[in-house]
Structure formats: structure tokens, C-alpha cells
Amino acid sequence: MLKPMARPNSQSCILTICSGKGGVGKTTIARTIVKMLKKRYRIAVIDGALGLGGISSFYNINPESDMSYERFLNSVRPPSEFICRTESIRLIPSFSRGTIEDFGLDREYGRIKDLIEFLRTGSDLIIIDTASGLDLGLYEYMSLSNFVLIIVANDPQSISNGYAISKLASSITPKPTISFFLNMAASGGDFLDFNTKMLLLSRKFLQCELKAIGYMKFDRVFMQSPGVMELGSMLGNDNMENMVEFEKAMEEQLGFIIPNKPMILTTGSGTTAQMTGR
Question: Which end of the chain has the smaller Cβ count within 10 Å, N or C?
């Protein structure tokens, strides 16, 4: 039986962003949340994509193996030696040119809590961007978190995998706040249908209510554009108000503020993301 790790004694919000399937936009959404909230909040990011270099690649950071998150996990060196400062955030980068076996980790995550305890000093929000998939490492990340955001694409396999993650997260005591984000939706109707299904499934089988906090419509031009790496850069001046609304939606989800109306994000190519309060 899995036993959750004790959560750090911290006032910081700890957010795990995960997905059961690769290629659904998980790291893009994580990068977007950082970009939007770093203007007002102190943010630390852990790149949990071991051996893959997930969110680190968005910042063009590929550390030497001896300065990576992987090395931190199997060493006794202090967390301060592994921190990169970039774009007003603190980042613990992962190594993108190796495997977990290269570092002899064997899925040992005993130092994660120590790292979060260190990062909580001077951080309002700690974001853990995980690798896709469901394993013991993800369970331990979620057990340390106040919030879990599951990114799914609008296809049956991705949704099924995402629901499996929500079941695992729901077994943690105390239970984190669990939400979904639907990417590549064909329409707002897809989002509403997905949200209804998640609510019904979670009420029936998990004895709780799991909701989707928002969605992004599929747009082939947008998905193929280099701008997908910088969602905010896709916004024209006319849409800056929508950017502010999107920020408020994320702040409400994390308990920072309470917005007073629905949140819409419109990209320059016409793609929209609607965020709803919890």
C-alpha cells in the first residue's frame, strides 16, 4: 500500500502539474502559469521530468549532470547548489541527456521534501512539472502538494489516463485540490461535456467532485507555431485584458484572490481558453 509523504510545514502553495500521456501540452501549460503569475508572486519551479529536461528546455537551460535535479536526489549536497535563477524565478533543472539509471536513482525521492522545505523560504508558489505517466514518483509529488492540475487532451486514452491519476490523487490523505485542464478541445461544448463526465464519475466512484478549470481549443496553425512555446507572446495588445483575466483565474484556483467573472484567454490566432472558478 502506498503511504503518502508528510507535507512540508509551509505556507507556500505547492502545485503538481501532471499528465498520464505525453504530448498533451502539460509543460506548455506549466510554463504559461509561471509566465503569468511571476509578475506578482515569487515562484520556484522543480523540473521533475527526470532525464528529459522538461520545463528547463523552455528556458534554454540544460545543466551539466553534476548540477541537475537528478544529481541532487542522490547526493547530500545542499539544495542551494542546484538552483538556477532565470526570468525572476528559481528553477531546479533536470538533465536532458541521460536516464534515471545513469544517476543510480532507482526512483528514490527521499530528498524531495527537503528541497521543498528549502524552496518555501522566499516562494509564494512552488510548481512541480512532472514527466508524463503514473508511477511512485508522481504519487510522492502529489502527496507533498496542496494542488494537483491534470492536463488531458481531447482523446479517450488521455482522458482515461488522467482519470487514473485523479483516482490515485484522491487516495492521498489529506487530499490535495485536484483539477483538470482540457487541451485541444474542438469546442466549448467538448469542455462542458468533459466537465460533466468528470463530475459524474468522481461523485459516483471517488466520493468527491473533480472539475475542469478550463480548456484550450485546438488550432492547427497555433499548435504548429513557435509561439506555442510562449503562449503569452501570441496575444495582441487588444487581448491583454484577457491575459489579466486568465491570471485572475489561476490566482483564484491557488487561493490567492477571488475573481468576479468568467475568465477568457484569447490568443492571436483565435484560440480561446476559458477558466472557471472552483
Answer: N
